[in-house]
Amino acid sequence: MKKLLGLDVRVTLFGLVSLLTDISSEMIFSVFSVFFTVILGASVVLLGLLEGLADLASTSLDYFSGFISDKTGKRKKYAISGYGLSVFAKAIMVFLATVTSAFSFRVIDRLGKSIRGPPSSAWLSSVVEKKKRGYAFGLHQAMDQAGAVLGPLLAYALLSYFGQTLPSFATLFKIAFVPAAIALIILLFVKDKPVRPKKRARLFKSYGEFSKAMKHYLSAAGIFSLAYFSFGFLLLKAYVVGFDIKDIILLYALYNVSALISSVPVGKLGDYFGRSKLILASYVLYFVMSVGFVVANTKFAVAALFVVFGLFYAIDESQTKAYISDLEKSRRATAIGFYNFITGLIYLPASVVAGYLWKINPNYAFMFAAVFSLAAIVFFVSRRKTK
Description:
Blueprint: E1 3-4, E2 7-8, H1 9-39, H2 44-60, H3 62-72, H4 76-95, H5 99-126, H6 133-162, H7 166-188, H8 206-209, H9 212-225, H10 231-241, H11 245-273, H12 275-295, H13 299-327, H14 332-360, H15 362-383
Antiparallel strand pairs: 1-2
């Protein structure tokens, strides 16, 4: 297979698919929390419930899709199914703009992510050797984040030109549909790399067969997931501090630029120093960010914290998958899917709690996150036995 940037060319093609998909998704998501509450008039509590359900949906099928991918040895067809469902979800926003349609879009789009996630990550992992795995996931994440930068900037340009009205958002949704459809077409032409099927695998016995290191990491990740709050709350915090709607989009782009710049370097650091150290660093960054949002009351402080969150996300989104791929070599899709499912299951109550705490006092949501991220740090350090 041809090489590009020192890696199998499929890594770059996967990255291109993610780039286009994220341009589409982030055009919508960068304005979604404000669109949903300000333009459509939905409550913040409903937003918290929706974001919790969306996060649950984004991981609800991960375990199953990862297990089926490992059991059958197939990667590509499950990845295509997931991307296709997300394209369908975006089509909903093209034709409808109501609270119900927006609610449906977020959940269906995340279900598509859940179906494609573990098979796609295992597919990517299978085309690179271990010593370059962090770099490969970092490069993929960098291209993904490039789309996440371009998407909000396009949204900002559209809303600046057309205004912040319902018809303007309708135009934005139509334009966002195009790159998602192109990404799906590109993926159809990427060559699959099937693996040996795990025909004797059993869906409900996978956890017992994981290594001790994997089980420990799952416990730490479960604790950390309680600290989770939807990114939409960070955008609302910026709105409360005084950012205009269109300026919030630029702030969201800043976060994505931070993640973009960080992705490849942190991937190479993981290859060199060991990925468990990066996982711990991501927990520390999240704790610092949560405490920071409690005390932040200026635009500069909020902007700086978005940069910190971008660095956290660069580690969490790419190196978590690389770390799990190291721990579970023969059942990567199942392990990644199980991790995503468990953490996503916890995200729902965490987001709902964050929504209610926000209603009482926004700082309480961030204080809650700080407490549980600190607990995850203590657990991970006290029992960590592997790199």
